Amino acid sequence: MRLTEKITDVCLWIIILLFCGGIIYACCSEPKTQPQQGDGSEYFVTLTDAVPDAILEIRYFSTYNFVGKRIDGYFEPTALLTKQAADSLRAVSDDVKAHGYRLKIYDAYRPQRAVDHFVRWAADIPDTLMKHYFYPDVDKSELFIRDYIAEKSGHTRGSTVDLTLFDMATEKELDMGGTFDWFGHESHPDFGGNPETLEYAENDSITSVQFYNRMVLRSAMLRHGFKPITSEWWHFTLKDEPFPDTYFDFPVKQLGKKS
Asked: Which of 55, 81, 120, 159 has the fewest CB atoms in 10 Å of its CB?
């Protein structure tokens, strides 16, 4: 056999071995992205199945949100999370319940079609139906610039939740000194104090009690594996989220139902 033929045979065997090795690796690796078969909902649970004490107020199923309409992809007023995030949120619920609180959920998993709806709305500058309620001090044309609206959301990866605390003694939401989805610096966790030291900074917009209430929620979430963001006191993502690079698009509805 000539030398060139031997080289060709060796190269062919190398290609075959690499191909087979790739198949074995793909079969044995844990799934970190959305599977090719199905929509990915098999990795999720209905939040209230995992956290039965949670109160739901799914704003994007209603018309009381910054758009003023039901958002695309919200078929039912329920909440979904990855199994890992739901388990951690159950630990948060048990924690705060011991102190007289329950979790109130505004949003959890958010399909990509909902995010696309936000993007279309933000580009429609004349539509300011809900400006008075959610962004009175911000020009709508600046929502993209200030990152209030983006083409991708951590919610779509399935391990992010927007929530507050419900006081079982007063039967009201805990006073956080601001509303969910308020577009403004007042929503920042460090507005009115230092979240790291829990030290309040006196100001005209938020009281020491309101700042402390925010920190009660924040501290409980951090204790059980969630991480905050710098712009919204109500927004937390599981640190070890199972799908950090996957953006799902199946609708929000009770799992197991057909569309």
From this structure: 120
Sign of the Cα torsion 188, 118, 42, 36 reads: negative
Q: What is the DSSP string of 33-92?
A: S--SSS-SGGGEEEHHHH-TT-EE--TTTSS-SSSSSPPTTB-SS--EEEHHHHHHHHHH
Q: Give the sign of the dihedral formed by CA 158, CA 147, CA 218, CA 164.
A: negative
Question: What's the whole-number mean pLDDT along residues 214-238?
Answer: 98
pLDDT digits (tens, 9 = 90+) for 101-137: 999 999 999 999 999 999 999 999 999 999 999 999 9
**Which of 42, 173, 232, 241 is an active site residue?**
232
CA-to-CA distance for 248 and 239, rounded, in angstroms?
18
CA distance 127 to 144: 15
> Measured between alpha carbons, how far is 176 from 214 in angstroms, rounded to an integer?
6
Which is it for strands 80-82 and 44-46: parallel, antiparallel or unpaired? antiparallel
Residues 230-239: tens digit of each pLDDT: 999 999 999 9
CA 257, CA 141: separation in Å to the nearest integer? 39
And the tokens for 33? 């992205």
Angle subtended at Cα 51 by Cα 49 and Cα 52, rounded to the nearest 5 degrees:
70
User: In degrees, to the nearest 5, what angle opens at C-alpha 198 toward C-alphas 168 and 212?
Assistant: 25
Is 241 annotated as catalytic? no
CB 133 within 8 A of CB 67: no
Contact of 102 with 96, CB cutoff 8 Å = yes
- Within the chain, residue ranges assigned H as helices are 3-28, 47-50, 83-97, 112-123, 131-134, 208-223
What is the average pLDDT across 44-69? 98
